[in-house]
Write a structure and sequence with these properties.
- The protein has about 350 residues and is mainly β.
- The chain has a seven-stranded antiparallel sheet. Strands 1, 3, 6, 7 and 8 form a five-stranded mixed sheet that branches. It has a four-stranded mixed sheet with strand order 10-17-16-13.
- The chain has helices at about 185-215, 245, 250-255, 260-265, and strands at about 1-5, 10, 25-30, 40-45, 45-50, 55-65, 75, 80-85, 90, 95-100, 115, 120, 130-135, 145-150, 150-155, 160-170, 175-185, 225-230, 235-245, 255-260, 270-275, 290, 300-305, 310-315, 315-320, 320-325, 330-335, 345-350.
- Helices cover about 15% and strands about 40% of the residues.
Length: about 350
């Protein structure tokens, strides 16, 4: 039987002796394992109440009883009493890993590992641990080991698997503990534990590239634009807020829109004023300019602006090509033959 410190342990004497007359019994409690040890107790209604005290240990006891009619004591068989609040706990120690090499960005602390066995031991009774029978497999062959009491420091020598074994006890019970020690390549560990993240990153990059390729293959001139074409003779065509990609044939055909083709198409359903000469191809340069669609955002890129065409975006002059976002573009064309009047194209975003 067992009990904690400073507890009262009840023993039913009827389990050890018969008392058919229910006489009051004289009880003696002897400690066979330690003759100097005495337990305080009282006997009430054939129940022996033993005070365990504060001393931990395992004791061999014997009961002796007699009533007033008896001249000699009756003795019980010896029995054991263990006084211990709770058994100690020794947490599991994860396998120790030491690196013989590593990449510069890895934790250099894994190339030298410290361990303190006291960090894993706990006893509710506050009993200090006792350690013995240390055995270290791999010492001086796989790793160096510095021991100071229950503190150990391991540094690698070469790859392999060793172990640290020992016995820990709290004077009452004991446990055999064994800890695996692995000396490995830190570089190999890095790839073994992170390959999945590199795979995921590679898949994400491939997906992004595919999406960009798909989007770039279907780029269009984006946004709603008000288009106005005028000449010096008062001729004018005007259309308010047209989505070129959705509402024109030239916008739906390809990601590049020829400016001349766009003007000729919208002239059929745009608002007209005056007698604008629709033979726009006679203006040098208008048939060379292209509106190139964009992958993200709104707008377009105007390309192939001839030298003789005056181009402005938000009032600032541009040459060659220009990305037009939500900005106003203005192109001025002059007929070098002098037959036609100057023509001006304005595209404003909405």
């Amino acid at each position: 039987m067992s009990a904690g410190v400073n507890k009262t342990l009840d023993i039913d004497l009827k389990k050890y002796f018969e008392n058919p007359d229910n006489d009051k019994m004289d009880v003696v409690l002897e400690c066979l394992s330690d003759t100097n040890k005495q337990f305080d107790f009282v006997c009430e209604n054939d129940v022996l109440k033993i005070e365990t005290g504060i001393e931990l240990g395992r004791y061999e006891l014997k009961l002796k009883v007699k009533d007033y009619d008896m001249t000699e004591y009756l003795e019980s068989k010896p029995f054991a009493l263990t006084i211990n609040e709770e058994p100690f706990v020794f947490d599991e120690i994860d396998p120790i890993e030491i690196w013989v090499d590593s990449y510069p960005w890895q934790d250099a602390g894994s190339e030298e590992v410290d361990i303190n066995l006291a960090d894993y031991y706990y006893d509710p009774d506050g009993i200090e641990a006792q350690y013995r029978d240390f055995s270290i497999i791999g010492k001086d062959t796989l790793f160096k080991c510095e021991q100071n009491g229950v503190q150990f420091k391991f540094t690698p020598i070469q790859k392999g698997t060793g172990s640290l074994s020992f016995v820990v006890s709290d004077q009452m019970t004991e446990k055999n503990i064994s800890v695996e020690i692995n000396v490995v390549s830190g570089k190999a560990v890095f790839w073994e534990r992170n390959w999945i993240w590199f795979l995921i990153a590679a898949i994400v990059i491939v997906v992004i590239v595919i999406v960009l390729l798909v989007l770039s293959a279907t780029t269009r001139v984006k946004g709603n634009w008000t288009i106005e074409l005028t000449d010096d003779n008062g001729g004018r065509i005007y259309i308010d807020q047209i989505n070129i990609a959705s509402n024109t044939t030239v916008g739906n055909k390809a990601k590049k829109v020829n400016l001349l083709a766009l003007i000729e198409e919208i002239s059929f359903f745009a608002e007209k004023i005056g007698s604008l000469d629709m033979n726009a191809s006679r203006y040098d340069g208008i048939n060379k300019i292209v509106l190139k669609g964009v992958t993200f955002g709104n707008g377009f890129t105007v390309t192939k602006i001839p030298e003789n065409v005056k181009a402005e975006v938000n009032g600032l002059p541009v040459r060659g090509s220009k990305r037009v976002k939500l900005e106003t573009m203005r192109l001025v064309f002059d007929d070098p033959t002098g037959v036609l009047s100057r023509m001006c194209l304005t595209m404003r975003p909405h």
